[in-house]
Amino acid sequence: MTTAALELLDRVGLPDLSMRRLATELEVQPSALYWHFPSKQVLLAAVADRILETVPDAAADVRLAAVAAAIRDALLAYRDGAEVVMSTYAMRLGARRAQDALQAALGDAEPALADAVFEFILGHATLLQQRMHAQSVGAAPDAGPDPTSGLDEVFDAGIRAFDPLSAARRPA
Amino acid sequence: MTTAALELLDRVGLPDLSMRRLATELEVQPSALYWHFPSKQVLLAAVADRILETVPDAAADVRLAAVAAAIRDALLAYRDGAEVVMSTYAMRLGARRAQDALQAALGDAEPALADAVFEFILGHATLLQQRMHAQSVGAAPDAGPDPTSGLDEVFDAGIRAFDPLSAARRPA
DNA sequence: ACCTGAACACCGTTCAAGT
DNA sequence: ACCTGAACACCGTTCAAGT
User: Fold this and answer.
1) Using the beta-carbon criterion (under 8 Å), do B120 and A158 form an inter-chain contact?
2) 3-class secondary structure per residue, chain A
């Protein structure tokens, strides 16, 4: 059932992912969904876990850039994926794995940094998908030629700043 | 009218900020709002600009940490402020000012870095407000003692990583 | 110029009742 | 155990009509 929700999300986007529409998709009455999930929010949390499912488990010898890209790609693999993860982050059942993977890649750096990297990735992916949606709707007020150009540039610049191997960090 | 929306947002939160409720607040029929704004999304974009209004204009001699903190504080000043800015970022009328201020503080560093910092701040503030809301509702599944403890630690760690003055950057 | 009244096509959620 | 039917209290948006 989270599979159907995931597929519907990718097809219609988060604003149009309603319980009623999902029920129609499953050829069931809307109220039937509430036997399986207590609320839409819990349903979305399960969907968020599915989205982050593909990020590999924590490993010590992986570069930060690789882990960060894997998380970003997982978020971008479904329409509005980043926003779904973000909106259900409070009850992080599956976000922990992603953060553990980042922590492992950062090695002995302060733990707060892993959280900061995760927040950057989520912010980046959410804004990117936001722009994609805005462009598909049409109305670009000042009309930059391509909203997703410079995509990787910004992401790479961010990850480079976070990576302890790409710069000498100050001792204190 | 954006003032009333801003006040209502802060009182009831984004999920309960409806056009009908705002109309009631203004003692007007819901349809009256559509003479002033073509849609709820445009109304929210105007609210987002108001939220970022207080961040100071770009200045060359300001430390990154100061600008970043000013933007974060502006986002946190109203309930769900970060999410509002994020959801209307595509039509960035007021987000440009914030990004220009970051660019100025970063000096001659690559421009993509300013965007990355802004994305980090937005991600950080959104997740923080998400946790605040989840905690007020009650249900903390694994119950970390205080969801906002380590607030500044994560933020500071992120900004320190971005600040060219806090670490020697590699030449390439 | 600015607002009302009424309608249209939707929401999430609950709950008795069915099988 | 799993679903239906019907209801409750809402949404955003449009549009003729009023002043």
Assistant:
1) yes
2) CHHHHHHHHHHHCHHHCCHHHHHHHCCCCHHHHHHHCCCHHHHHHHHHHHHHCCCCCCCCCCCHHHHHHHHHHHHHCCCCHHHHHHHCHHHCCCHHHHHHHHHHHHCCCCHHHHHHHHHHHHHHHHHHHHHHHHHHHCCCCCCCCCCCCCHHHHHHHHHHHHCCCCCEECCC
